[in-house]
Amino acid sequence: xxxxxxxxxEEMKFGKNNFLEVARKKAVAEEGxxxxxAISRGFFLPDGARRFKKSIAIPDEAxxxxxxxxxxxxx
Length: 75
Fold this sequence. Notes:
The protein is an alpha+beta fold. It has a single domain, classed as Nuclear Transport Factor 2, Chain: A. Strand 3 and strand 4 form a beta hairpin.
């Protein structure tokens, strides 16, 4: 069984009922731990609860994060 822990997260609301979240997470299993960065999109339910629709996880490696940061701004 894998347990996911949120180390740090930042959220930005957009549109009427949507949000983006960028989070550093850790997957913990008997075999070991793995840190990664998750970028998720979601929406709010009428009671304020959050629901996630889509997510992408990238390795916590400087080269990959720099590549994504550069091209997000360029595209």
